[in-house]
Specification:
Chain A has 357 residues and is of the alpha+beta class. Chain A has helices spanning 3-16, 31-39, 58-70, 77-90, 195-230, 242-270, 276-302, 313-323, 330-341, 349-356, and strands at 102-106, 111-114, 123-130, 141-147, 155-161, 181-193, 232-233, 236-237. Chain A folds into 2 domains: 3-193, Beta Barrel (Butyryl-CoA Dehydrogenase, subunit A, domain 2); 197-356, Butyryl-CoA Dehydrogenase, subunit A, domain 3 (Up-down Bundle). In chain A, helix 3 packs antiparallel against helix 4, helix 3 (58-70) crosses helix 5 and helix 5 (195-230) packs antiparallel against helix 8 (313-323). Chain B is 47% helix and 13% strand. Chain B has helices spanning 14-33, 42-45, 49-57, 76-88, 94-110, 113-124, 242-254, 264-276, 280-308, 314-338, 350-365, 372-382, and strands spanning 130-133, 149-152, 158-165, 175-181, 194-200, 206-212, 218-230, 235-236. The chains are: A alpha+beta (357), B alpha+beta (386). The interface between A and B is large, with 52 and 50 residues.
Chain lengths: 357, 386
């Protein structure tokens, strides 16, 4: 058994006693699940032990995020392990304790000012509103990618203590918190990034959502195949009807395509490929496109019961419908990909396509 | 998900990238010299024996076959890179395509030593072309219902009667690997009693009648067999094993990049238009199409890697062909939605011409090599539904 299999098995075991539930403003995340994961060291995987993490490879962190996505787990692990954690470390910023939830946001509407209060360089104050913040009101720490201070190029990656800040109530289609955080002279430690480095941080966020989408799409297919085998009409299992088989096969085609491209994009990130932003963009766009087909057909095959909160299907389809436009919308990433592929002129399209992943 | 659908990621191949560069250089030089023009769907319509011979000279045909048969003992990943570059450039590869893709591998698997010695080196040289003898006027998706019959005469040779259709470029080819009934149909064992024959298309009793496709092009034919005597030693593989052999052949037929790149030259032309405009919708369309293409490439590369491992991934190949050929047609509609262009084969605008070629060939993408409905049935089997 490989390390990843072991990690996946551990997470699955934990999930058996943490079933997904309908998120509400009063119960907006699974604090119990987070505590169990943190206790097992799973909220620090892929982050080096020397920085307070649990060690392990990117592939291990991806496996954890994928397994939690399959289980519709309401915890900010994707943000922490795949986006904020590695981005902070790459920028030589210190990592908050992995036991305290850390999230990430692109905050184009805030302004940052350097301060020197005797603590040396790297201290800033942040003003403005961080919108669409994943796990707002849940995460104790927020890594924000903000415009650089006036007069400087690039961007600023800053980490803010959000434990005493009030978040607004706003939720995505699955009820996951996506509120705003108003920052008034919020102190932050931060580091300047080049435009290219900032682009890679955004790409990490997109790829994290692509990993979650790919995993959830696989699970939705598995649930739908299972349901089609169990549900009988006209004296036969649904899956015996050719019309249903065609729909399930179409779903399988989408799911398999997404998995192949997402795997390749993760590998591109792992080997530090020059085109990692385009690889992540492609994975995100492709996964988003698959949601349209897979969620629609999954609900069609499940029939009316899948349209209720009594059945498990919505835990993932509602997430799919949200995640495809988070971490940068599908449209925005499609434009990034299109522009990137034309960067060397239209005759460079094919050479770039064969190089990206 | 069921393991029969998924394949392991393809390892990166330096050798493939090396040969890719060589092919790219060759194609640029040929385009500059004007020896070919880029077209859509050239693996069906671009018959150019001289071009095929040039590929043979460079060692880009029969790439994975043993050297003793004129092959080059290179990996499926290297062959993948070569075929992908040729398709992306819209190069005229139709003459040798079937022979190199599936007939050669079929001969390698099931042919006699004499058959291999005689034919494989000529395929690898780009001089010997094949057609697929599977479908018939009354047998399309239901291949087991074929009626073309072969019976032994006193000399032990085969006498063939019947007809095969959609035989692409039979008028320009040398052989047809022909699926025939060698025993009468047994309704309880429909897949038994079939065999494959290696048929020399110049034999007496064979008539090749053209069938024109929507753009007027002559690629399809009906090949009629009237008391055609096929020498006994032209049986391919085992008598009665035809169904099994044809299934293996289809895995090769369905697994390559031509199942998602047939309309790539249209995408390339569209990219030129996008680069000249500042329309964000067109840019996003290029991004979306490219994301789909990149996913298909990964799937197709995984199949090449599986072939290198000695597997015959027929179920994943069916899945990739379904997704890929759907993409080939969608390209047309996605581009139409964001570009104001009139499709015409006579258009002064290269995008209008590419769009016209792609449109008039479009019905074929999701039919040839097994309809997408048949392919989805295979995928459904992979999901454990049947």
């Amino acid at each position: 058994m490989s390390d990843q299999d072991l990690v996946v098995e551990t997470v699955r075991d934990i999930l058996t006693s943490h079933e997904p539930f309908v998120l509400t403003p009063d119960r907006r995340w699974d604090a119990g699940l987070w505590a169990t994961l943190a206790e097992a060291g799973l909220t620090g995987v892929g982050l080096p032990e020397s920085s307070g993490g649990s060690g392990g490879e990117l592939a291990d962190a991806v496996a954890i995020v994928a397994t939690l996505a399959r289980g519709a787990a309401a915890v900010p692990v994707a943000e922490q392990l795949l986006v904020a954690g590695p981005a902070l470390l790459a920028a030589d910023l210190s990592l908050p304790s992995p036991e305290e939830p850390l999230t990430f946001a692109v905050a184009d509407a805030v302004t940052v000012h350097p301060v020197d209060n005797g603590d040396g360089p790297g201290r800033f104050t942040v003003n403005g509103t961080v919108t669409d913040l994943a796990w707002a009101g849940v995460a104790q720490h927020v890594a924000v990618l903000a415009p650089a201070p006036a007069g400087l190029d690039g961007a600023l990656l800053a980490v803010i203590d959000a434990s005493r800040l009030e978040a607004t109530d706003a939720f995505n289609l699955a009820g996951e918190p996506r509120g705003s955080l108003v920052l008034d002279q919020a102190p932050a430690s931060g580091a300047l990034l080049t435009e290219a480095q900032a682009g890679e941080v955004r790409a990490r966020f997109a790829l994290a959502r692509a990993v979650q989408l790919a995993a959830a799409l696989e699970q939705v297919l598995a649930w739908t195949v299972q349901y089609a085998g169990e549900r009988h009409q006209f004296g036969r299992a649904l899956g015996k009807f050719q019309a249903i088989q065609m729909e399930l096969a179409e779903m399988a085609g989408e799911v398999t395509a997404v998995a192949a491209l997402t795997d390749a994009a993760v590998q591109a990130l792992d080997r530090g490929a020059a085109d990692v932003v385009l690889a992540a963009a492609a994975a995100k766009v492709r996964a988003g496109a698959a949601v349209e087909v897979v969620a629609r057909l999954a609900h069609q095959v499940h029939g009316a019961i899948g349209f209720t909160q009594e059945h498990r299907l919505h835990h993932l389809t509602r997430r799919l419908w949200s995640w495809r436009d988070e971490g940068g919308s599908e449209l925005a990433w499609a434009r990034v990909l299109g522009a990137g592929l034309l960067a060397e002129g239209p005759d460079g399209l094919w050479p770039t396509l064969t190089r990206v992943v | 998900m069921s393991n029969s659908l998924t394949l392991a990621p393809a390892p990166r191949s330096e050798a493939a990238e090396q040969v890719r560069g060589e092919v790219r250089e060759f194609l640029a030089a040929e385009l500059a010299a004007g020896t070919f023009q880029t077209h859509v769907d050239t693996w069906l319509s671009g018959v150019d024996p001289e071009f095929s011979r040039k590929l043979g000279e460079r060692g880009w045909l029969g790439m994975t076959w043993p050297k003793r048969y004129g092959g080059h003992e290179r990996s499926a990943m290297e062959r993948y890179a070569v075929t992908e570059e040729l398709l992306a450039a819209g190069a005229p590869v139709a003459a040798h395509w079937i022979a190199d893709r599936q007939s050669g591998p079929n001969l390698l698997r099931y042919g006699t030593e004499a058959q291999r010695q005689e034919i494989l080196p000529r395929i690898a040289a780009g001089e010997c072309y094949f057609v697929i003898g599977m479908s018939e006027p009354d047998s399309g998706s239901d291949l087991a219902s074929i009626r073309t019959k072969a019976a032994r005469n006193e000399a032990g040779d085969w006498v063939v009667n019947g007809a095969k259709v959609w035989t692409s470029n039979a008028h320009a080819s040398h052989y047809a690997i022909t699926l025939v009934r060698t025993s009468p149909l047994d309704p309880s064992h429909r897949h038994a009693g079939m065999s494959q024959l290696l048929v020399d298309l110049s034999l007496p009793g064979i008539t090749v009648n053209p069938i024109r496709i929507l753009d007027g092009g002559h690629h399809f034919n009906e090949v009629v067999f009237e008391d055609v005597v096929i020498p006994a030693d032209m049986l391919l593989g085992e008598e009665g094993n035809g169904w099994h052999q044809v299934t293996a052949e289809l895995a090769f037929e369905r697994s390559g990049p031509e199942r998602f790149l047939s309309t790539y030259p249209l995408v390339a032309e569209f990219a030129r238009r996008v680069a000249d405009s500042d329309d964000p919708a067109a840019l996003a369309t290029l991004g979306r199409l490219s994301a789909r293409l990149l996913a298909l490439r990964q799937l197709s590369l995984r199949i090449a890697a599986a072939l290198d491992r000695g597997e015959l991934p027929d179920i994943p190949a069916a899945l990739v062909k379904d997704v890929g050929t759907t993409f080939e047609g969608d390209v047309i509609e996605e581009i139409r939605r964001v570009v104001d262009v009139t499709p015409s084969l006579d258009s002064p605008d290269p995008l209008g011409r590419a769009l016209a070629e792609a449109q008039l060939h479009a019905p074929g993408y999701t039919l040839r090599g097994g309809t997408n409905e048949i392919l989805r049935g295979i995928v459904a089997r992979g999901l454990g539904l049947r």
